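Researcher: Quick test of sequence recovery. Tokens follow.
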């Protein structure tokens, strides 16, 4: 299924598999890349919980809380984490928006970078599945906190 990109500054098309889930799992999914899928889920979930858009500083703050640092170039599973995040952008799960502020806001040059959900994250079945998984995790965490 084709989807046009709604962003004015980036053009492209996305495709979604129409294979049944069991066929997709048997012939397309690669268990050796499950860590990439997990990181993509974590990052897009953070952005989703932030309202669909988050500045770079806040995204890295949340990832550091999970033990993932932007300065780590040799993570035992993901390698260079900045490159891993860039790969998520290249796969069209996130868009990057960079702004130059007249006043110095973030950093010495006043640059601000934001990550926003992109078309693959907003695709109907993926979007619905993400929301379902996030709500299960959040409800589980809330239940375990209430049990204490």
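Model:
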């Amino acid at each position: 299924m084709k989807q046009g990109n709604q962003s004015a500054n980036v053009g492209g098309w996305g495709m979604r598999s129409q294979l049944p889930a069991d066929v997709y799992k048997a012939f397309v999914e690669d268990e050796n890349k499950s860590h990439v899928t997990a990181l993509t889920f974590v990052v897009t979930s953070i952005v989703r919980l932030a309202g669909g858009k988050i500045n770079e500083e806040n995204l890295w703050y949340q990832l550091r809380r999970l033990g993932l640092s932007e300065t780590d170039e040799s993570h035992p599973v993901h390698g260079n984490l900045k490159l891993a995040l860039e790969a998520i952008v290249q796969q069209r799960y996130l868009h990057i928006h960079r702004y130059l502020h007249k006043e110095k806001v973030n950093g010495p040059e006043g640059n601000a970078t934001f990550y926003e959900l992109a078309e693959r994250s907003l695709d109907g079945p993926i979007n619905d599945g993400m929301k379902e998984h996030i709500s299960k995790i959040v409800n589980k965490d809330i239940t375990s906190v209430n049990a204490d």
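Residues 124-147 form the longest helix (24 residues).
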